[in-house]
UniProtKB/TrEMBL annotation:
The keyword Heme does not apply. Pfam families: Ble-like_N. Keywords: Lyase. The lineage of its organism: Bacteria, Pseudomonadati, Pseudomonadota, Alphaproteobacteria, Sphingomonadales. This is Lactoylglutathione lyase. InterPro entries: Glyas_Bleomycin-R_OHBP_Dase, Glyoxy/Ble-like_N, VOC_core. It comes from Qipengyuania pelagi. One of its GO terms (molecular function) is lyase activity. The keyword tRNA processing does not apply.
Length: 144
């Protein structure tokens, strides 16, 4: 079985959040969705679970953060090209999201960040598959 990841996000309005993620290209899995939760499929191995706050609270005793004012995690979505990054940013804006970080073009790396209506941030990126980090005299990439 392939390893999979399910990202659980607390949301104020499951229907509104479902519509936002559908506008970005996620597909709702009806078998695991109801008025308390929407299972939003990104790929065969990645799903985002949009959980109403009261339902989310059944999984933890910790306080639920307000993602508009507190950062708890930054997730990143990768894309096959610059055009796909541009498209998801446009879809996010049109669906009521914001861009806390505009798209930057660093040549080998292209991306920014989008934010859903509840404040959850998704970084976006495309990386040139042919790019390799420059080698320094020590034989390691510059970031070492």
């Amino acid at each position: 079985m392939a390893k999979t990841i399910f990202i659980n996000l607390p949301v104020h309005d499951v229907a509104r959040s479902t519509a936002f993620y559908e506008a970005l290209g996620f597909e709702r899995n009806a078998a695991f969705s109801n008025e308390q939760a929407s299972a939003m499929v990104w790929s065969d191995t990645i799903s985002v679970m949009l959980l109403a706050h009261d339902f989310y609270a059944t999984f933890t005793d910790k306080a639920i953060i307000d993602a508009r004012t507190t950062s708890g995690v930054l997730n990143c979505l990768s894309f096959d090209g610059r055009e796909a990054v541009d498209a998801i940013h446009a879809a996010a804006r049109q669906a009521g999201g914001t861009e806390p970080r505009a798209i930057e073009d660093q040549g080998f790396l292209y991306g920014g960040a989008i934010e859903d209506p509840d404040g959850h941030i998704w970084e976006t990126m495309w990386m040139d598959p042919d790019w390799t980090p420059p080698v320094t005299d020590a034989g390691q990439g510059d970031d070492q």
